[in-house]
From TrEMBL:
Residues 2-145 form the N-acetyltransferase domain. Transmembrane segments: none annotated. It comes from Pseudoalteromonas luteoviolacea S4054. PROSITE patterns: GNAT. GO terms for molecular function: acyltransferase activity, transferring groups other than amino-acyl groups. This is N-acetyltransferase domain-containing protein. The lineage of its organism: Bacteria, Pseudomonadati, Pseudomonadota, Gammaproteobacteria, Alteromonadales. It comes from the Bacteria. Pfam families: Acetyltransf_1 (PF00583).
């Protein structure tokens, strides 16, 4: 069973470790402990911990940009290919609707992240723009909820 809850500062060390997994690092820009602490203090940044069977299994970083718009900045799950991420994303969307009256969620994903692109497409996110980050192609995707 997947559950989401506001992340606690004491989870940051685990988040840093999760970001360092070899199957995660190529697809994100990892943060240091200090960067996570600073982001967690930002009033527009929302950290949600993902629990699978009551064990901390991942996290989201979300950013409120407008009254009804959320940037889905990051999802990291410690065990891939078990469906945890997909279930957590669906719950995150419901969380955003319930807590922030969200109407639009957007994200960017490296073009090389084929697993991420497959999941986002499967969950109804659609490309609306492309960009580059340090020479790497990014695909910007959105979903109206």
């Amino acid at each position: 069973m997947i559950e989401l809850a506001p992340a606690l500062p004491e989870h940051i060390d685990a988040f840093v470790v999760m970001e360092q997994h070899s199957d995660t690092t190529p697809f994100i820009i990892p943060y240091t402990n200090a960067q996570h602490q600073a982001e967690m203090r930002n009033q527009d940044t929302i950290y949600l911990s993902i629990y699978s069977n009551k064990a901390l299994s991942g996290f989201f970083i979300l950013v409120r940009h407008a009254n009804t718009e959320i940037e889905f900045r990051r999802v990291v799950v410690d065990s891939k290919c078990r469906g945890i991420g997909q279930q957590a994303i669906a719950q995150m969307e419901q969380y955003c609707i319930a807590h922030f009256d969200t109407q639009r969620i957007w994200l960017d994903v490296f073009e090389s992240n084929q697993r991420g692109l497959h999941i986002y497409n499967k969950l109804g996110y659609r490309q609306f723009k492309t960009a580059l980050h340090q020479g790497q192609p990014l695909i910007l995707m959105e979903k109206y909820v």
